Every structure is written in structure tokens, then in C-alpha cells.
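[audit] Reproducing an earlier prediction to check determinism. Same input, same settings, fresh worker. If the C-alpha cells differ from the archived copy the diff job will pick it up downstream; this log only records the rerun itself.
[audit] input (510 residues):
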Amino acid sequence: MSLFKSHARPQWSSDFVYILAAIGCAAGLGNLWRFSMLAYEHGGAAFILALLLANVLMVFPLMMMETVIGQKAQLGGPQAFEKIKPKTSWIQWLPPFALIFLLFYYTPILAWGMKYLVTSFSGAFLSNPNDYFVNEILHLTGGITDPGTFQWGLLLGVLVGYGFVLYALRKNVMSLGPVVKITATAPFLLILLLIIRGVTLPGAIDGLEALFIPKWESLLDVKLWQAAVGQSFFSASLAMGYFFIAGSHRSEKAEIAKTSLWVLAGNFGVSILCGIAVFSTLGYMALQQGVPVSEAATGGPMLVFSVLPTAVSMMPWGAIFFAVLLFLVVITLAIDSIFGVFEVIAGAFHDLWNKVKYAHISLVLCIILVLGSLPYLTGAGMYYLDVTDHFFNYILLLVGLLETLVLAYIVGANKIRLWINHTSKGLKIGKWFNVALYITPFICAFLISVTLFKETQEVYGGYPFEYIVYWGFIPVGLIIGLSIVFGIITHRKMKKHGLLTPLFDKFRKD
């Protein structure tokens, strides 16, 4: 029995299932629309190169770092941190509470995809996909100050989504295994079909040139590097607590370096495949409209639900088939990400109250998440989503900063590297890992300071300031406040039950 275990934990059935689940959590809708538009805005292949460097030099070492702590502690992030350094568990309570707010607005996107999928069979969207999405799917109002009407059809989609989550996680995170074998692989197959169709369309080469021909001068722009680091964190579910909780359901001696590399490669591969599917289709759309690809593209969720259906509607044959295919991709990517996010939230609370059944914790969380989603199901939901998502990035960077400070400068970067190599089966991690951990807090601090400075220059999105407070500052304040409260609860409970084993000293002796 490990010194780090406070209770028995179920284990992944195999490394293959673990890798599939991790890729499923990492590879989501952000790969489909966020990656593609950032690549367009920041120099095509220049952005891809920056993203690759960010993945190798930051995401890869941090992913291994989070995984090895979860494996050694056999606990999720909050409890693991409390054992490493008392009174630091609040740092790892930030991700679960931030992810609750993420699911408030992320699950409605899944509901959009479900509603669009059902209605796409009729072909009603073909005449004007943009108007159809805005008026028939969203019932979008003229601005953030007008909440509009509540969309009961979208609520049904949210309930179906969480019903699926409860079924997949009906016992614990291990019951997810058979499900992710389907949901994690389906997007690859569906995206490949979209690629085959996209690259055979007239004008596809123009779209692919926009993606793969680099504008090297973009590498001198700090905005490109901010975007690349932010996207690499967001896309890989880094600093969200996932790899602590997923790693805790593995054997303490399970191999880390190779499996992390597979997860990283799978996630990056999905991004590239999505980019090819998106840009080849946009090239065709631009040709049909007689405009450059840059003028045919739009960022954000509108890319998936407006621009791509518009491109699909222009296809000479099979428009409805490829629309259905597109929204199956959207739904499978979204549900996989929701699984991973839900694991982190439910796992953190189950570690705190391990005598309560996992299924009961999951049910209570689903009720809270459905209630929190209600404002995003109104006619102004897209505007609320825009603001909350913008401020979510601050929490990611803050967690990245704080967790690397603790693990690199208190536990020791070299100690963590040796733990990882102790599990290695051929792939040894060099001392570049130490450098990456030491400098990551400063990179995160720089990005936070730069983006905060921008906030002082202009109000985000041109929204009224009070709505920035409601949907941005207040959620961030609640996330930090609740994390501190639960950090105190975690410390007191673990101290009361004698669970504050001096793991830091133990680690040094390993």
C-alpha cells in the first residue's frame, strides 16, 4: 500500500484506454474552430510552428509533471498538493471551480450542435445558414443587454448531454472506458471524411495555402506567442487538473513519458486535421463568393455553426450529408471534452468526501451544472459565453503559474524529472525539463500582465462595463473565493484524519 493513498482507487483498464480518454478530453471544439482561426490570424504555418514549440517545451513537461504527481499521490490535485505543501490545496481547487463555470457555457454549445443536427436533415439551413443559426438555433438578440427568450429546445439538449455523462460515469471514472473507445476515435474518422470532401472541392488549394504557407514575420509578434501558449494550454486541458485526477487512476509505476507524448501527438494531430478540413472548405467558400479566404473566415463558435454550414450549403451535391457529418464531429468532440472536464470536478469532490458514492456526487453536480447553464440558453447566451470564456483564460494561466512555482521551486524540478524517468521504458527526459519548469511561471506571469494591461486600455468586446463585471470579474472572484474556502476545508479535514503525511520529505528520500 502506498504512503500516498488515502483510499483505494480504481485503475484504468489499460494505458490505451487512458490515452484515448486523455486525447478525448484534450481534443475538443477548440481544435475545430479556435486553432483554425488563430492559425489564420497569426501567419498560418508560423503559428503552427509556435504552437508546436509551446507543446514540446511547455505542455509536454507540464503534462508529465501533473501526471506523475497524481500517480505518486494516488489523489487528485487538491489533496496531492496539500500533502506536498500544507495550505496549498486551494491552488488545485481553482481548476474544478473554473471548470464548473466552463461547463455552464460549454454544454450549451453541445446543445447547439444537437439541435442543428436534428434540424439539418430537413435542409432548412441551406438557403441562409448564418441567418438560420442566429434566428432559429440561437434566437440571438441584438445585444448583451437584451436577454431575449429562453430556448427550451436547447435545455433539452443540455439534459440529454448530462444524461449521457451520468450514464457513462454511472459507477466511477473507470466506467467511461468502453464509451471513450467510441467517442475518442469517432471524431478522427468523421474529420477524415470532411477532409476527403474538402480537399476535392474547387478552391481548396487556396484555403490550404492560407493554413500551411508561413508568414515568418509573424514570429516577431508577441501576440502570436501569447496565442500559441494560450491555445496549447487550453487545447491540451493543461492547468485544469485533468492529468492529476487521470494520473491518480493509474499505477504508481505506470509509464509516463511515452503515454504523455501519445496524448500530445493525438491532440496536435486533431488540430492539424481540423485545420485541413476547415481551410479546404473555406477555400471553396471564398472561391464561390469571389473573395480572399481571409474575408470568408469568421472566428469563434460562429465558424462551426455559421461559416462551415454556409460552405457546406454551396457544395454541388451531398450538402445535407456533409452537414450531418459536420455536426456529428461537433457533438463527439464536445461530449469527449465534457467527460474529461466532469472527471476533474467530480474527482476533486469525491476525494474530499470519499464516503459519498461517486454517482451521487455526479448527480448533484449535474443538477448544479444544468441550473448554471440556464442564462446561456437565452437569446443573449452567445454574448454571455463570449465574456466568460475570455476571462476563463486568466484562471488557466494563474493555475499554470502557481502550480509550477510549487512543484519546480519547492519540490524541485530535477526530483520530478527523476520520478518520471523512474517509470520510463526507453524514453528518458533530459535536463531541458528542469529549465522548462523553472521558466514557465515567468512566462505565465508575463502573459497575465500583458493581457491585464490590455483590459485597462479598452473594455472587452465593446460590451457595457457592468456586463463585463457580471459575466467576467464576478465569476473569476467566485472561483478564487470558493477555491480558498475549499482549500481551508481540505487542510482541516486532512489534518484531522492524519492524512498530512510529509510527502515532501518522503519524495526527497525516494
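[audit] rerun output stored. Observation attached for the diff report: The chain has 21 helices and no strands.
[audit] end
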